[in-house]
Amino acid sequence: MPKVYLDNAATTAVRPEAITTMTEVLQNEYGNPSSTHNIGQSSKAILEQCRKDIAQLFNAHPGEIIFTSGGTEADNLVLRGAVRDLGVQVLITSPIEHHAVLHTAEALAEEYNITLELLNIDQSGAIDLAHLEALLEKYQGQKILVSLMHVNNEIGVILPLKQVAQMCKTYGALMHSDTVQSIGHYPLDFKEVPVDFAAVAAHKFHGPKGVGFAFIRRGTGLNPMILGGGQERGMRAGTEPVYAVAGMTTALKHAYEHLDKEAAYVLSLKKRFIDGLAELPGVRLNGACGDLANSTYTLVNVGLPIDAAQSAMLLFQLDLKGVACSQGSACQSGSSGGSHVLQALDKVGVPMMPSLRFSFSMFNTPEDIDFALACLKELLEASR
Ligand SMILES: Cc1ncc(COP(=O)(O)O)c(C=O)c1O
Asked: Measuring from each residue's beta carbon to the nearest atom of ligand 1, which residues come in under 6 Å?
């Protein structure tokens, strides 16, 4: 059976170079990086070299990189820490954030009785920046945290991160960005883009699962969320998975070394997919994902002219044919309400349709795209 993996926004295949690094570290560097003997210190040296290498890629200071178990933990570390330790009274975010941010924000609003504001979006999913500015003005004098994702994982819309971070700075607000879908796919310079915090996950850029990092700008004064030992400069207790951090670092270095070439290639696959969709009557591109200037090159979200039951069946039938895609974010597949991102678009006049997300990587081929399109066409015709 063919194996056509078009669910790269859920997770990616690991780069062979990262696998080589991890195997070497697993075999040879088993020391606990907190141990004082040579074997432990050898692991520590790898960990600290990774931190330096990662910091350098983003023009950050090594001390600003805190290794975590992935994006969800990094989002929680930042949001919880900002409310608990920095006295945030107003949290401004959007209805199309990943649940790692949205559910945390909702929980914090209850636990700490802070004000939670959700920004307006337009029909492409773009954040209403005038609304953001109005709220920053309204709450001036209170401690504000803005949390907005750089690239949306379901509809691909891109936030003008630098502009938003500068706006937050102007109003004295803290800014966090969930950059899980953008790091490894877009360059980011933390000296130029004045965010205070960011969240990253290795498995979205051909690194291993279960590892990522939080960028925490120096001097922000956050305390740890997970208590225990003094690892990660006291910011995140728990023995570091040195092999996974090393694999993530290799994946990230390769991602940026080959970024232009790989991004152009993946964009060509997205264009090929969109061109092919034009031959399927009644399909629609959701949000900004058809707008190549304002959406990520890695995904499309396709509204289908069928009902919800047929769409679930279509996903299953595509899988039977060897095509892996998803009904939105992997973490909400199985939930009954459907995508909260498409629901948010529905509220601004884009009627919700049963939809599938196809997301691409450098490991896909033009033949994968053509095969997926042919399967989609056949199955859609059969469901009429
Ligand atoms: C935008 C976004 N944020 C956060 C996460 C969660 O990251 P992780 O799976 O590493 O916890 C994901 C992963 O699906 C994501 O796409």
From this structure: 70-72, 98, 100, 149, 153, 178, 180-181, 201, 212, 329, 331
**pLDDT tens-digit map of 178-229:** 999 999 999 999 999 999 999 999 999 999 999 999 999 999 999 999 999 9
Q: Give me the domain span that covers residue 245.
A: 16-256
Q: Are residues 247 and 281 in the same domain?
A: no
Sheet architecture: strand order including 299-303: 284-285, 299-303, 355-359
Q: What is the CATH number of the domain that holds 152?
A: 3.40.640.10
Q: Which residues is 67 bridged to in the sheet?
A: 213
Residue nearest to ligand 1 atom 16, measured at CA: 153
Atom of ligand 1 nearest to the CA of 73: 11
**CA quadruple 199, 204, 209, 211: dihedral positive or negative?**
negative
Cα 9 to ligand 1 centre (Å): 9
Q: What is the pLDDT of residues 18-47, one digit of tens each?
A: 999 999 999 999 999 999 999 999 999 999
182 with 292, same domain: the answer is: no
In terms of domains, do 243 and 337 share one? Answer: no
- CATH code assigned at 291: 3.90.1150.10
pLDDT of residue 337: 65
Q: Assign residue 238 a region: left if phi > 0, alpha if psi is -120 to 50, beta otherwise?
A: left
Q: Whose CA is nearest to atom 5 of ligand 1?
A: 71
Please give the positions annotated as active site: 331
Give the number of domains in the chain.
Answer: 2
Please name the residue that has the structure tokens 């049963």.
354
